[in-house]
Design a protein that fits this description.
Length: 210
């Protein structure tokens, strides 16, 4: 989303006093010259709650995240305490030291380079071998591609076929509360690139054509 559109969304919501929960978990994984600004920047009433995590960047196994809750901070702390009590203190200390020593910033530079390379490889492979009318996104950050399969192919059926081949994809309808995106899938390029990924994409291509 462009910065101007993001600003307009926040202004529209705050005009009607509607809170916005912003998921910024992929915010640090950008491929553009500079990072996109969180919608929090454009909030004047404190109605934007920004959530993020280190689970997509520094330490997936730590499950450590953070929340800028603004005027909802007190209530957010109560809910956090009620649902999960507290997060691992040693994990938080480790991440804090990693970040304050500027190692995290250097690490992110390398990680973004690797992810962009993985994306370009996967995008090229899909555009080369998949059916010509397959639609695929070209994200400017993150670690996933979104595909729309040709001929209204049933993504859930493809999901079950892929599982039998130990290939992990996500059918699009799980991202919709109204059962949309039935012919869409999400694929991750966030793992180290290897020949198994190429083989998996070839198998998915055959499944799409069958």
């Amino acid at each position: 989303m462009t910065e101007s559109n993001k600003k307009q969304v926040v202004e529209l919501l705050e005009l009607h006093n509607i809170p916005m929960i912003e998921d910024d978990v992929y915010g640090d994984l950008y491929f553009t010259e500079k990072r996109g600004m969180p919608a929090q920047k454009y909030s004047k009433k404190g109605l934007v709650l920004t959530c993020s995590s280190f689970s997509k960047t520094a330490a997936p196994g730590y499950r450590i995240g953070w929340l800028l809750a603004g005027r909802f901070s007190k209530k957010a702390k109560i809910i956090k305490r009620a649902l999960s009590c507290s997060s691992s203190l040693i994990n938080q200390w480790t991440l804090a030291e990693f970040i304050t020593g500027y190692q995290y910033d250097r690490y992110l530079i390398k990680l973004r380079e690797i992810l962009k390379c993985n994306k370009d490889r996967m995008l090229s492979k899909i555009q080369t071998v998949f059916p010509a009318d397959t639609q695929v996104t070209n994200p400017q950050g993150g670690c996933v591609l979104w595909l729309k399969l040709p001929n209204n192919k049933d993504a859930k059926q493809l999901f079950y076929q892929a599982i039998e081949e130990n290939i992990s994809i996500i059918p699009g309808d799980v991202f919709s509360p109204s059962n949309r995106y039935k012919s869409c899938i999400r694929i991750s390029y966030g793992i180290p690139w290897n020949d198994n990924i190429i083989v998996a994409l070839d198998k998915l291509n055959k499944m799409c054509r069958s």
